[in-house]
Amino acid sequence: MNEGVLAVDLGGTNLRMAAVADDGAILHLTRRSTPKSVTPVELISLAGEMADECIAKIGSETTLLGIAFAAPAPSARNSEGILTRLPNIPTLNGMNLKAALRDRFSFPVTVENDAIAAAIGEHWMGASKDADTSIIITLGTGVGGGIIIDGEPYRGVDGTAGEIGHVCVIPDGHPCGCGSRGCVEQYASATAIVRMARENGLDFSTSRDVYNAFQGGDERAAIVFRQMGSYLGIVLAGLVNTLNPDMIVIAGGASGAWDAFIGPLKDEIHLRAFHAPSTRVKIARTQLGDNAGILGAARSAILNAESLTVV
Amino acid sequence: MNEGVLAVDLGGTNLRMAAVADDGAILHLTRRSTPKSVTPVELISLAGEMADECIAKIGSETTLLGIAFAAPAPSARNSEGILTRLPNIPTLNGMNLKAALRDRFSFPVTVENDAIAAAIGEHWMGASKDADTSIIITLGTGVGGGIIIDGEPYRGVDGTAGEIGHVCVIPDGHPCGCGSRGCVEQYASATAIVRMARENGLDFSTSRDVYNAFQGGDERAAIVFRQMGSYLGIVLAGLVNTLNPDMIVIAGGASGAWDAFIGPLKDEIHLRAFHAPSTRVKIARTQLGDNAGILGAARSAILNAESLTVV
Fold first, then answer.
1. Average pLDDT of A215-236?
2. H-helix segments, A38-189
């Protein structure tokens, strides 16, 4: 008898669910568009439908031990599982995701912040597999962060640690949705790339378009990515001095523009961080891509199930 | 029979040594001026003379288990004990402090970075005694940092973690001795306070003088401390978002100007950090003052002696 879990990655654009075996194999993966203005009831109904599909596909030879949700909310870092501050899915603000999942599913329920899930995933199966202490930065609509110390996710006292996207890089910089100004999220997210491109006279609607322009030789697009790499590098240099990690993994959609920003990013780290930790740290690209969060959520659910079994 | 250790705080101005009992009581403390351009040989000779004084004073009823040095060098964070990058005692650059101490003393030798030692000291006996996860910031000639996670000093992969003074707060700011620009050390150290005062037309030679002017009602001095508090607060807000600690302890000579900078510092944390971690974190003033480093070094030596005994 094999064992596995259901793992869900809740994003502003897509809702993805996979049945994942305890060795990390994805047994079945299904995807829906996240409905516009999705309500909590609709979300649970959709998740139930997707779970039924996964269960039917994997058949009866795999026992499911739990379900885990990776959600783009800082509050998904705490043990309560109440979602708050979801700028891209505001209709779910205040939802008690953990309680709602418990009502619908008969499995143990785990809720993780999406960036922490990605950090766990990359450490389990991906780029930071051999790194004891690593940091993941996810460049998507926002900038997320997750920290692994000595092989374990670092959560902080209230479970809110890792909000690296909201480290300030320009004190009087661009206003941020978090209430501060000049957060690195305002210079290194996919959203920021589009805004900075517009400030440079390029009117595109996605960071992918800006990257295509860069690949086509557009110097204004190149400047945008150089700025983005520099600002992100300044913040990462501070983390290198503060945490002296083995590795920093860069993930999320905008990490696809790697060759456009990685040079200036590494330059800032080497310029600004001390010699020993800046020589130590490897800057790596995600190996799991879109599946980092789903695999990390799966890993959390598996570990939770094991700890329940031990108790 | 009581047990204790010798602990030394090596500073640019003073060399202080104490015999410390294993319960943290300071049995005897002695101090010398750090000789101008002190050589490694002179340092060890002076330490030997101070150790002889301590040993004579405490008498034979206390067994000494080891000696620990807290040194103002990032490299004192690593296990080698070779001092590098001591801007204030450059004549000791390259000294293998650990080996030299082993040659002179018959005790086990511990070398700690001074800010990590202060963090250990405050967690053992001082302000952060009841905090599992805390950060110390030392405001002296430079800005040092030390991190305690789950009660243990966090050292990073190479032992260089905690260099919070070299987190950037203004990307194109004042050049820093570390090779970067705009490090918070350039805006929050005692040295920086004197420089910023001069930029505001106040010609003083110590940060204490600037503080005295503040207390006398000088508005230019008040501006300097407001700037200092804001810049330090911006960096601490980033650490609050990243590490979600219980407490931040502010120590070092310039922390004496507490009432002049703490308001703007806290304002920046509350403005810039997320609600949950900024509500959680207590901002506390050192309780051990000048003795934080010496007590932390003592604690390290005691723990090292215990681990040697167990082995």
1. 98
2. 40-58, 97-104, 114-125, 185-188
Q: Which residues of A touch B164 (CB under 8 A)?
A: 241-242
B201 to chain A, closest Cα gap in Å: 24
Q: Is B2 helix (H, G, I), strand (E, B) or coil?
A: strand
What single string gives the DSSP state of each residue in B213-269?
A: HHHTT-HHHHHHHHHHHHHHHHHHHHHHHHH--SEEEEESGGGGGHHHHHHHHHHHH
Amino acid at B50: M
- The Cα–Cα gap between A293 and A296 comes to 5
- For B125-134, the pLDDT digits (tens) are 999 999 999 9
Q: At A197, which helix (H) or strand (E)?
A: helix A190-199
Interface ipTM: 0.95
Partners of A242 on chain B (C-beta within 8 Å) are 145, 147, 161-164, 167, 239, 242
CB A150 within 8 A of CB A132: yes
Q: Which helix (H) or strand (E) holds A293?
A: helix A292-310
How far is the C-alpha of B253 from the C-alpha of B70, rounded, in Å? 16
How confident is the model over A232-261, as a mean pLDDT? 97
Interchain CB distance below 8 Å, B274 and A169: no
pLDDT greater than 80 at residue B254: yes
Q: Please give the helix or strand (H or E) that residue B199 lies within, else none.
A: helix B190-199
Global confidence as pTM: 0.95
Mean pLDDT check: name the lowest of A239-248, A278-287, A297-306: A297-306
Cβ of B14: how many Cβ atoms within 10 Å? 12
Residues of B in contact with A173 (CB under 8 A): none
Q: Do B157 and A280 touch (CB under 8 A)?
A: yes
